[in-house]
Specification:
Blueprint (H helix, E strand, L loop, with lengths): L28 E4 L4 E2 L5 E2 L3 E7 L9 E5 L38 E5 L30 H15 L6 E5 L1 H12 L6 E5 L7 H15 L19 H15 L2 H8 L16 H16 L2 H13 L9 H5 L5 E7 L7 H10 L7 E3 L7 H4 L1 H14 L3
Parallel strand pairs: 5-6, 5-7, 7-8, 8-9, 9-10
Antiparallel strand pairs: 1-4, 2-3, 4-6
Helix pairs in contact: 1-2, 3-4, 3-7, 4-6
Amino acid sequence: MNTVLATTEVPLPPASGAWREGDPPGRRQWHIRENPLPLEAGGELPGVRIAFETWGRLAPDRSNAVLVLHALTGDSHAAGPAEPGHPTPGWWDGLIGTGLALNTDRWFVVAPNVLGGCQGSTGPASLTPDGHYWGGNFPFVTQRDQVAAEADLADTLGIDRWALVVGGSMGGMRALEWAVSHPERTQALLLLATTAAASAEQIAWANIQLHAIRSDPHWRGGDYHGAGPGLGPHAGLGLARRLAHVTYRSEPELQVRFSRAPQGTEDPWTGGRYQVESYLDHHAAKLVRRFDAGSYVTLAEAMNSHDVGRGRGGTSAALSRVTAKTLVAGVDSDRLYPLSQQAELAAGIPTADHVRVVESPSGHDGFLIEVEQVAALVRELVDQSVF
């Protein structure tokens, strides 16, 4: 008698974890820009599409709109459960909803997937007008290009002015660009764990991650999107995620959580892993199934280009343009975007005061983890503002 053993083999991930045509749409809506989008570095993008999600109802006078901007590997799903079309729960789920800081009985909240992203917006994993993947031909885009695409979305929604623009990390870069590029359209501003310009160290960390992805033999110059399962640049993207994740957390937190403990019964002396290695492997495996390596490269390069003072007479001159009521906050244990960078923002923005400090052992990720402290900042800002 033959016995058939059950298998728990995990299927290979697709070449890209991007959302694709035919996938469940989830809560996504789409905005299509019919005209080409001119790009800051030259050239243009034809047929730009932005995926976005909304919560609440837009007031008749359109005065209650809030723009929420995601970080590097985020997307439009800022709130709500994991469901078909959304492989993970909302990344700020405790902030948006009835009775929460962004109370959807009062506010109309909009969260777009960034231009260059991979969850429904135009990016390397999406199709060109002639039906081919953009892949390695996707152009270089900057934070200003991304804000231009978001401004076009706002125009279509009939939103002349955001009551509040909020973002952390890469989302904070775009929030700042909104307030500098469109001060008349930004009434209040919350900047979290972000900076006026990418620093040399931030560029250096990103550069190593970019090399990891581009060194993967399955990268193929960025043209891998039509490949079969397991044939995307998963090793390179996984290495990039492992490195990034270490910079997102703090050394004391990693030591307290993992120390030198082995993973289960594995023996690190005989090829097994430490717990901290298993932790990084877990986050790498999760990302390759829900994200696109080409988008990671595109967005990391956009973050490296971030300099609010570029072409505006320098940082001080650019920050002086901000007219929105502003709160700037950083995380006390953040080693990637240290508090000194938020202090520069607070000192340079005329409508800001001292830096608010989010207390967290979790490093840069504290702006996502410490939801109650972020909620208190949101409430402080909207309660002080007149809408």
